[in-house]
Amino acid sequence: MVHQLLIGTYTGSLPHVDEHAEGLLTATFDGTAVSPAGVAALLENPSWIAVGPGTGTVYAVEETGPDGSVTAFSREGGGALLPIGRECAGGSSPAHLAVHPSGRFLLVGAYGSGTVSVWSLDAEGVPLERTAFVQHEGSGPDPERQEGPHIHQLSVDPVSGDLVVVDLGLGEVRWYAFSEEGRLTLRPDATVATGRAGPRHLAFHPDGGHAFLVNELDSTVAVLRRGADGRFRAASAASTRAPGADGPNFPAAVRVTGDGRTVLVSNRGDDTIAVFAFDPETRALTWLSENAVPTPVCVVVL
């Protein structure tokens, strides 16, 4: 089966990345290899993207300045993107966003300010008003990269319905109870601490009992298993890099195909998308291939 991919990138140089791409990219994935990428929209540093359920609305952050933005697109014939809305992201250097499974809320995480914002959406997926705001506090064990909170991902636990927040700066993954009105309440007993590994993004397996956590600071992807108490714990881990790879590398995105058999991880530095096979019985990841893509930050399987 062939999937269309939308790939987030950086278009300008920042302290952690050099410019390579022209904007939001599009490509195809046949289950093993990724095709050469083309430009879908000319945005500045569209480092993360998400697609709304039902509406198919595409959302992209622009990671710029102290007050970044979020742009909403409708998908037209042939996969073309048409802008339908634009809002302030609600924090400095927004690095991630996601859409609540209900399609009623947009979840935005700001790396620079270490903040989480929840926005209500109208029937077409256009942002309306903010319903929740959370400020993380503290630091992690790495004084250079974890001197303060740095939100890198927001997602919704498919079993509990909680909001899951990955904070690279604190070295933690936190679970928040999510109300019908879009309000948040921390569940401290569910926190997963990974420390110096630098957790960046998490993807749930379709079975709901496993998740994959990519770590930016040590170039690994960890397999997490849900216990009888509903909490996740580490089960195994693998390098995101090909054997023999060297030089600086910063993994970014992790994705699982719909059948749960394949895991994709984007590598900045190596400039590749790594492909793994996953065995739920052994909870092991097996390296399949790597595919060249310029500065791949975000991968969405459509």
TrEMBL record:
SUPFAM superfamilies noted in UniProt: C-terminal (heme d1) domain of cytochrome cd1-nitrite reductase
Transmembrane segments: none
GO molecular function terms noted in the UniProt entry: 6-phosphogluconolactonase activity
InterPro entries: Cycloisomerase_2, Haem_d1_sf, Lactonase_7-beta_prop, WD40/YVTN_repeat-like_dom_sf
GO terms for cellular component: cytosol
Record-linked Pfam families: Lactonase
Top-level taxon of the source organism: Bacteria
Family, per entry: Belongs to the cycloisomerase 2 family.
Entry protein name: 6-phosphogluconolactonase
Lineage: Bacteria, Bacillati, Actinomycetota, Actinomycetes, Micrococcales
